[in-house]
Amino acid sequence: MPNAVEIKSLVKRFGDFVAVDHVTLDVPQGQIFGFLGPNGAGKSTTIRILCGLLDPTEGNATVAGFDVRTQSEDIKKHIGYMSQKFSLYDDLTVEENIDFFSGIYGVPRARRGERKEYVLRMAGLTEKAKMMTRLLAGGWKQRLALGCAILHEPPVLFLDEPTSGVDPIARRNFWELIYQLSEAGQTIFVSTHYMDEAEYCHRLALMYQGRMVALGTPEELKHSLDSHHLFEVEPADLLGAMDTLSGMAGLSEVAVFGSGLHITSASDIDGETIIRSALQRAGLDSNGLKRIHPSMEDVFVGVIEEEDRRRKQGASQ
């Protein structure tokens, strides 16, 4: 089975600024692929290239078998696209938005009624079909925008920060819809800066300053930290504890997580003893100190710290 998306050494420059820096990856059909990273990491630029909206500076990519350089119009016919702004018309009703996008996407007239009913049912908007779109809450707008993006049944769907600005319950409900689409055979390429959403993806790439710094399943990426011990502590003086532990021999990363700190130590180091002793010498408590399993956020912090160290070493040579 051919890949839905193939990217080879993709580069995009805007003047001297490198927005996408030699990204290479494949996305099999039917997979939910996550693009994870902070704002400015190059996620949206890559997606715009894959949607045929931007030409790459170097490298190449295919989407649904079509070349982004020479077949951008064919790509647009075979993809759905949803941005974080939802791309809806607030002065139209829910069903008027569906009717409008049915025409834009070239849905055959004979099938428009059937597709409208599907979208209303899928999004749970049947009772809100006559409502003005501007009156919908963020989560409902999100569902409507997704429905409009799949009216023409595209094999590949691009979702660019689709859950930005909506509440956690709406985000979870939205991901249930994404799973339904994936199970039906659609390929979902989704970008996000929410670390917890990475757990929902079959595979994901971590993007940082235009580069892909890690690639794999969530479990594979978390297992990449198995060579280190990860500890959590919740001291009363959070900043004092962070200052005390940062840069200490035997500890590689110290980062704030919620009301506590996550500290990484090498596997051959007794991290718990180092942490407890250092805090005690500084007159600080070690409340809740324990070994924990890494989350995707731990993975991302660790990968970014390593990437920053690598770049500093390269710049100094």
Task: Tell me what the structure shows.
This protein has 317 residues and is an alpha/beta fold. 36% of the residues lie in helices and 27% in strands. It has ten helices and 14 strands. The protein has helices spanning 43-50, 72-77, 94-104, 109-123, 138-149, 168-183, 218-223, 238-245, 271-281, 296-316, and strands at residues 3-14, 17-28, 32-36, 58-63, 66-67, 79-82, 156-160, 187-192, 203-208, 211-216, 228-233, 251-257, 260-266, 290-291. The strands form three sheets. It has a six-stranded mixed β-sheet with strand order 6-7-8-3-9-10, sandwiched between helices. A hairpin with a 2-residue loop joins β1 (3-14) and β2 (17-28). α3 runs parallel beside α5 and α5 (138-149) packs parallel to α6. The longest helix is centred in the last third of the chain and has 21 residues, at 296-316. The radius of gyration is 23 Å and the shape is globular. The two termini are 45 Å apart. The relative contact order is 0.13. The mean pLDDT is 90.
